[in-house]
Amino acid sequence: MTKQNTGRRGGFWKGLGLFFVGMLVLTAVLCALLWQALKKYEAGTPAAAMRRYLVQVQQQEYDQLYEASGFTPTEFTGKEEYIAYLKHLYDGQNLSQAIFNQRTGGADGRRLYAVMANGSPIADLDVWQETENGPWQVRTHLDLDGWYEVLAPEDTDVWVNGVLLAPEEADTTLAPAYAGLPETVSGPQMTLYRVTGVLGEPDVTAESENVRCAVEQSDPEEGEDAPLGVYTVLLKPDEKTAKTYKSLAQQAAETYATFISQDTDRSVMLAQLIYGSEFHKRVASYNNIWYAEHTSHEFEDMEITELLCYGESAFTCHVSFTYKVSRSGGREYEYPSQYDMAFLKTGGRWKLADLVTE
User: What global pTM score does this model have?
Assistant: First the structure.
């Protein structure tokens, strides 16, 4: 009896051990299958797809990213500009630690995610599936809905991202400094371009025959249909012409300053202005009798800058100087002065179209 019982007990423990071993093996197999399933599931999530996208960015696989984006080039934005835009967004960012926050605003069944680096958004990503249960596709979200304003003097060639703009497709407008001219006098015209389909900041360049060009960027006014940015082409006169313009500006600035101080007659001042202009009206009605009596006047530190021309018949400039007057008893008074001046050649003579004091 004792031997039989002992044998039965040994078989029981052996069977129990085999059972536990089998369960352990089965559990390990199930865990491995679950792990693979979870990895497969995770690899098929939007987060994993976005992470893979950022790895491609880090590895600078820009050609592949461009081809996979499905981007349709515009007149001003092609592959080169697309890649430059990606570099502008991502270069220097710590993408390995980036996180993704889903946003509202996705269109055409796409999800929109913000890429956050160091707590700040650096870009948006479009995420979508071509087919149900298909792999997630990712590309950088592009905003091409806005427009840029480019303002250039007539007869000036302007390029945006290397593309020559067509003036016949643009509007024309009076140069801002000449807004006060009467309707009977034609002021210099500017060509106003409305440029769309630009990704990122546009590269604006210009050329004009025999005149140096510069492009100035400024912030637009706020509004519902306001441009993303304003670019103004500036024409700078050659050295000889600049010398002539400076002489005209200095003479006109001194005439106006001495008119204010009652050292130049009103008729002399009016003769240098365009009749009927807003500035002519202001000078004609200006009351300068308040100016204190003095014995002498002089100009110091005369400086003429920001010379810009609009063809051969118009130019603007900035004039700064110190106007010193001496009163009886030897007392001297200094008046720092700054003028923005606009000139126009009409009837063969240069006239002062407007003057704004600062």
Answer: 0.74
